[in-house]
Amino acid sequence: MKDSNLSDIPDLVSGESKRESSRTLETVIPGESAGTYDKIKHLNRIIAVTSNINKTIVRVRNLAEIYSETCRIAIEIGNFKIAWIGVVDECTGKLVPVAWQNVSRELLSALCGEVSDTLDTPCLAYKVLSTKKYLINNSFDISDPLLFKQKNTYGFSWGSAAMFPLIVDENVKGVISFYTDEVQFFDKQEITLLEELALDVSFAVEFWEKEEKRKGVEEKYRNIVKYAPVGIYQATIDGTIITANSRLAEILGYESANELLYKKLKTDVYLNPDDRDCLLSLITGAESVNEHEIRWKRKDGTPLWIQLTVNAVKNESGETIYFDGFVRDITARKKAEEEVVRLSYAVQQSPASIVITNADGVIEYVNAKFETITGFTVQEAIGQKPNILKSNRMAPAVYDELWKTISSGHTWKGELINKKKDGEFYWESATISPLFDKQGVITGYIAVKEDLTELKKTSQNLRYAKEAAEEMNRLKSSFLANMSHELRTPMIGILGYSEILKEEARDEKTEKIAQVINKSGRRLLDTLNMILDFSLIESSKLDVELTRVNIIQILNEMYGAFEESAKQKKLSLHFDSKVQKLELFLDNRMFREIVNNLMNNAVKYTNKGGISLEVSVERINASDFAVIKIKDTGIGIVQENYDLIWEDFRQVSEGRGRSFEGTGLGLSITRKFVEKLHGEILVESKVGEGSVFTLRFPIR
């Protein structure tokens, strides 16, 4: 086809789409039908094409298949040689083929070529796009290279062509084209039918575009509901859940949203079923309830707090048909609020004074205890700084250190002398800490303070009492030491004369009296010695003289000293040493006193059986120790009294009805002597079976 304008080409005609009410054919098609039969035949073919395509539009459920079937029907039923449909790419504005029959991709690209101002065949489609009118060409130039190529490829070339715009909402969405190898093929009636066909396809395009948009909106809505951070449901008037999202299932402890379907809100969800009736009464008046806080229950019956917004959805008659519900789980928030209330109450009722300031140190809160201690009311304190309590009795360096500590993010602890509203001074213990926001910035300070005034007074009184007691104890020890010395001197004389009296006694009675005097005197002398040792220990005047001594030799001597007393009570006495010689750095007198007290007790508290003295060397924690064990088969000690036996002036048997004589100082002094020699003393005992006292001294 040669280049020319529309008006210059008698075989090329154009018409407006019948989309508008003024649609008419403005041109007369040259070469009317050669005969009635051929005309009817042509029309029947076009009608059959239109009918089948309409059936396809009704039957097929997607636009791509409608396009494809339209081209197929046009070829197979309409006997057209070429049929194709192009759609405008919204991004590039180019015409893109989407369905075709009996045409190569290369030729189709040419038919959908770039826009041109000429009427060459490749540009007919763009003329349709730009004018929004159909184009008919009933006589193509046979020298056209496209015709030649088409003929070489498919064995035919076109003689006539018809192109119709696909218009949706007054916008051209694409082009539907039909080609035949006959010239003068398209007459007025066929054009009218094909135009109606193009309108039907346009309707299908419009419908499916809206359907896709609707599906997109629905999918978007479904995704919003599905992935919403709040629970969403729809329920009937009677409270039956008909839709629910996964978040609601998660909130209520169900495995999936489907598990919630057909559950009853009143019985399955509300903790108190009557609460739903109350909610419905609120909705009836306002048609919606916003952010209503109420208690629901999970699947397992666990209660939870939720924030509920409900909207009544009505029909055209204004009747409620269902409810939309939006649910937030606020259980954690409620617990936090309850905790805040509890903490607030605890702070307000705290026995300690509590002060909270902002970052500049201005008081924002004080509790009741602050008012009680300081005399300042809440109204008087808020807005002031803590220096309203300043007494000027603390060194400025204390306050400097305090502010330096807390402003650097650390806690300050200390004691302060402050001043009450009435001018009275008082002591308080203070712990002051900074308060931080989420970014770690200091937003204020909190001080927890305790009134120490009475404690300070009590402490001072106790200190005075302690000093007085220590002085009395010193005087007591000094008195005991002096009295012991004064009593020991005449007692030695009494013992000496009792010995002489016993030796020179001429009758049994006198000798017995002398023995009683001697025995009683020695008992008293032992008591005086213990009191003297005790007073020396208490007054810290006991001198320790360490020398290297062979303890085996000393123990042998002391073993012999107790043979006679053991024999008198018919007790066995054994001495067993694993070593022949064992030298230690000890105070000789103290060591002898330790062993003497333990052996004396063993004999005293044993009525049958015997006593054994054992010596060995043991390695404990990489160090060597001399271990001395004094075992007896005596009365034993109750385990509850293990600590009591080491106390001053205490015995297992006490009072006037006690079973054994003694001062209660023996084991007390023994333990103190052992500790002075850097040793250790242990006891193991069973009532009625006996006791074992173990001494350990380091070997150096």
Word description of this protein:
This protein has 700 residues and is of the alpha+beta class. The chain has 19 helices and 23 strands. A six-stranded antiparallel beta sheet has the order 1-4-5-6-2-3, sandwiched between helices. Strands 8-7-11-10-9 form a five-stranded antiparallel beta sheet, with helices on both faces. A five-stranded antiparallel beta sheet has the order 13-12-16-15-14, sandwiched between helices. α1 runs parallel beside α6. The model is unreliable at 1-10, 18-34, 114-122 and 652-658 (pLDDT under 50).
Unreliable runs, pLDDT <50, ≥5 residues? 1-10, 18-34, 114-122, 652-658
Summarize the main sheet. 6 strands, antiparallel
**Radius of gyration, CA atoms, in whole angstroms:** 59 Å
- SS element count, helices: 19
Total beta-strand segments: 23
Write out the strand line-up for the largest beta sheet, numbering strands in chain order.
1-4-5-6-2-3
User: How much helix, percentage-wise, in residues?
Assistant: 40-55%
Structural class: alpha+beta
Task: List its traits.
single chain; 700 residues; alpha+beta; 6-stranded antiparallel sheet; 19 helices; 23 strands; disordered N terminus
How would you sum up this structure in a few lines?
With 700 residues, the chain is α+β, with helices and mostly antiparallel strands. It has 19 helices and 23 strands.
Layout: helices, strands, pairs:
Layout: E1 12-16, H1 36-59, H2 63-76, E2 82-88, E3 95-101, H3 105-111, H4 124-131, E4 133-137, H5 145-154, E5 160-168, E6 171-180, H6 188-227, E7 231-235, E8 241-244, H7 246-252, H8 265-269, H9 274-286, E9 288-297, E10 303-314, E11 320-329, H10 331-348, E12 353-358, E13 363-366, H11 368-374, H12 378-381, H13 396-407, E14 412-419, E15 425-436, E16 442-451, H14 453-504, H15 508-538, E17 546-550, H16 551-561, H17 563-568, E18 572-577, E19 583-587, H18 588-604, E20 610-620, E21 623-632, H19 666-676, E22 680-686, E23 690-698
Parallel strand pairs: 18-20
Antiparallel strand pairs: 1-4, 2-3, 2-6, 4-5, 5-6, 7-8, 7-11, 9-10, 10-11, 12-13, 12-16, 14-15, 15-16, 17-19, 20-21, 21-23, 22-23
Helix pairs in contact: 1-2, 1-6, 14-15, 16-18, 18-19
